[in-house]
Amino acid sequence: MTKIFISYKRLDKDKVFPIVREIKNNTGIDCWIDLEGIESGDQFQNVIISAIDNSDIVIFMLTKNFIAPYKDVKTGRIDLTKQTFPEKEVMYALRHNKRLIPISIDGTYVHDCKWLDFNCSGLDCIDWNIEESKQKLLNNLTRWDKTKIDDSLIEFNHNTKKRIILKYLTHICKSFFFRKNDAVANGKNAKRIFTIVIITGVVVSCYFSKSIIIKDDSRNNTKISIENKHHLQNVKEIVPCQYDYAEEFSEGLACVMKNGKFGFIDENGKYVIQPVYENATSFSEGLACVKRYGLFGYIDKKGNTTIPFEFDDAKSFSEGFATVEMNGKWGYIDTAGKIMIPCIYHSAKAFSNDRAIVEISDKLLNWEYDIIDKTGNIISSQHYYLISNYSEGLAPVQITKHGKWGYIDKSGEIVIQCQYDEAFGFNLGLARVKIGTKLGFIDKSGAIIIPCQYTNLGNFSEGLSVAEKEGKYGFIDREGTTIIPFKYEYANSFSEGLAYVIQNGKCTFINKTGKEEIFMTKHDFVGEFSGGLTYVGVDNKIGFINRKGKVVLPFEYDYVTNVSKRISLVKKNKKYGYIKIYNSGE
């Protein structure tokens, strides 16, 4: 069973705990988190180190508080020579080769912190406020926990002779690695071992230089295997991987960082706005938030300053408003830079459907949330302990700590009573809710459409929902009828008519009748089809395959994103660049 260690700052506990709960509820993975606070070095040594040692994954929750330097409690002075507890935890996990996953909660990223950027620049940050990013992490965590895909699943072809050769070479390699120290130490057989290694290397190189994609016409499907040939006729690297950080193209430009400075490039890799900024975000509604001289302001697509650099922090525009921070409090400005809602909140989310969630504090210093409109008016007299984003006109809310969840409308009125242990956003008229440990679906009237009987449950995609029951995955329709039986160890949602499943250790893509379409051999992870492509990870490198099983992007990238877009952000050798995906005949 996989175990996760949660590294966070105690000041962020009310933001972190709901995330941890969502991870645990959606994946079933045991999460270790310090609830009481570590007060001494001895406790760190005895408790924290033991917890990290016993964990497979270390998730650290990135916030301003998390990356803040060490501050002496008595004098209040910053001491850069000392490590904070978060830094100790992450560095210990890094030294002991733990899988590290940074999650951004408030817009803080790895490059915002010097000690993190230096040591963890190769990590890709999960933005918890972006649903696609969050769901991808939850799916991956579930997959890592439930599957152990290893070399025993490799199928090169049906040639028995080749299988015997492979088995023999594997035996030689194992024998060498297990015995080489004694042999070298004694000065015996060194020449023999060296010769075996050289021959093995040559044979393996010749063997694996052969075909990668194998068609099995008799079964009328495609089998994917490991090889070093690929079909690049539809993919071109248009901007080489050269940037220390980069974001996806937005409104025709991409935000990139090189040598510590941010700028914006076009699709040809040419700088449209020179890299002179200390920080920057992508363009939204014609403006980009940038940092210069230690303060934030906004520029247009020609690089002209449209809103002066006068904010301590700032975010992108949404529905004509942007959240900005002044003197430690957040408020909202319009596209002219006018403060429309005063900076009086501890935090503030972007407007969506003319509503925004803001964070306040009561006399006991317990965080609470309100919902405001674009005039700054609080739409309800009720304070909330937690509020999720609005979707399809309703938002899940929790009124009191440890209380039940329900739903409010845009006027702030509770329209579905607080009666659930967990509640999620509406999608296509239905929302997932949890009673006890089981999930089901309700409609907007609160009526139970599908009873709470599933351990895991996904949103409907292409008419079907992936569900887990009694340890097996299957697919149900909107009436709760089982369409594809519960027989898989793992399953993803349907996308473009295909879903990734694992049955008896065999990994395949199936269609909506349950028929196997694409067979997968050795791989680390796989995504969902989008735009006719999906990403596949092999030996910790990522490439793309198409629906015919052909590799259209070689397995040489550390990160890829948004295969459905014409231009995708990629990462290779810790540097970012861009590829373009062409349609056939283009």
Walk me through this protein's architecture:
The structure is a single chain. The protein is an alpha+beta fold. The protein is built from 8 helices and 46 strands. It has a 6-stranded mixed β-sheet with strand order 6-7-39-38-37-36, covered by helices on one side. β42 and β43 (551-557) form a beta hairpin. α2 runs parallel beside α4 (85-95) and α7 packs antiparallel against α8 (190-208). The longest helix is centred in the first third of the chain and has 27 residues, at 160-186.
Helix/sheet category: alpha+beta
Enumerate the spans where pLDDT stays under 50 for 5 or more consecutive residues.
37-44, 147-188, 202-233
Sheet-strand content, in percent, reads 35-45%
| Neighbour order of strands in the largest sheet | 6-7-39-38-37-36
Q: Whole-number radius of gyration?
A: 26 Å
Shape: globular
Mean of residue pLDDT values? 78
> Which percent bin holds the helix content?
10-25%
What distance lies between the first and last C-alpha atoms, to the nearest angstrom? 48 Å
Supply database-style keywords:
5-stranded parallel sheet; alpha+beta; single chain; 6-stranded mixed sheet; 586 residues; 8 helices
What is the topological layout?
Elements: E1 3-7, H1 13-27, E2 30-32, H2 41-53, E3 57-62, H3 64-67, H4 85-95, E4 99-104, H5 114-120, E5 126-127, H6 131-146, H7 160-186, H8 190-208, E6 213-216, E7 221-224, E8 235-243, E9 245-246, E10 254-258, E11 261-265, E12 271-277, E13 279-280, E14 288-292, E15 295-299, E16 305-311, E17 313-318, E18 321-326, E19 329-334, E20 339-345, E21 347-348, E22 356-361, E23 367-372, E24 386-387, E25 395-398, E26 405-408, E27 414-420, E28 422-427, E29 430-435, E30 438-442, E31 448-454, E32 456-457, E33 465-469, E34 472-476, E35 482-488, E36 490-491, E37 499-503, E38 506-510, E39 516-520, E40 525-526, E41 533-538, E42 541-546, E43 551-557, E44 559-560, E45 567-572, E46 575-581
Helix pairs in contact: 2-4, 7-8
